[in-house]
Amino acid sequence: MPAVKKIKFRIKRYKPGVIDPTRFQTYTLAVTEHMSVLDGLEQLRLEQDPSLMYRHSCHHSSCGTCACIINGAEQLACITNIWKLKSTTVTLEPLNGFPVIGDLTVDPEPLFRHIDEECSYLRPSEHSNADADNEQRNGFTRFENCIECGACLSVCPVTEAPEPFMGPAALAAIHREMLKFPQTQEAMLAMAGGKRGERGCRRALGCSRVCPTKVYPARHIADLRRAVAAAKKRIEDSE
Asked: 45, 104, 147, 161: which could join 64 in a potential S-S bond, CB 3.0 to 4.6 Å?
């Protein structure tokens, strides 16, 4: 019989007009050593409280929808092992900087607000083994390794500051667009160098620390900062 631990789940609850204002609710669950936080949420919803709200889809860190704040850190619930948290209490909160729809479910709109439509997340792939006659294989490749989980935006200290800032995900998207399609460089640098661009970054580096797929947004922002400065110098030298 597998070893079992009793773990408390302390979940931040909110539902407009139902659980309002926000409050924490605590549940106790028997947890085995291989259970993830998402497994725990699924079991709680099935056995104790069907009103719990959270998002999930893939169960293997591909979709990014289960991202939340787990014991104070932005993580994916599907790959966060409960036992490895080494705590008798698992505290769950929704991501910062996003409107809360209910409990751990947030509206992802702020993540995409500053990503220009020209920074397409899907591009025709240059190489594909797909049968050209198979219309179901369009040869699209996903942008970078970003799974749009929102963890970088949640941890960023500038996101909710008064000054406008497009955020780590948008800046990383701009940088990758510029590298993949050099003809877009002028337009991308104009966006990155704008009032909502790289100048707003405070170099906290939290975005790279919490990124589950190692996109390292802070690295992209640093590269953009150098590129913006170089472009500005070229303009000044030509005048």
From this structure: 147
| Per-residue pLDDT, 142 | 40
How many angstroms separate the CA atoms of 55 and 105, rounded?
6
pLDDT of residue 115: 62
Query: What CATH code is carried by the domain that includes residue 135?
Result: 1.10.1060.10
**Which positions of the chain have pLDDT values less than 70?**
114-144
Asked whether 139 and 128 are in contact (CB, 8 A), the reply is yes
In this predicted structure, what is the pLDDT of residue 143? 44
CA 187 vs. chain centroid, Å, equals 25
Mean pLDDT of the residues in the chain: 87
Distance CA 142, CA 10 (A): 35
Domain hosting 15: range is 4-106
What is the C-alpha R_g of the chain? 21
pLDDT computed for residue 100 by the predictor: 96
12 and 126 co-located in one domain? no
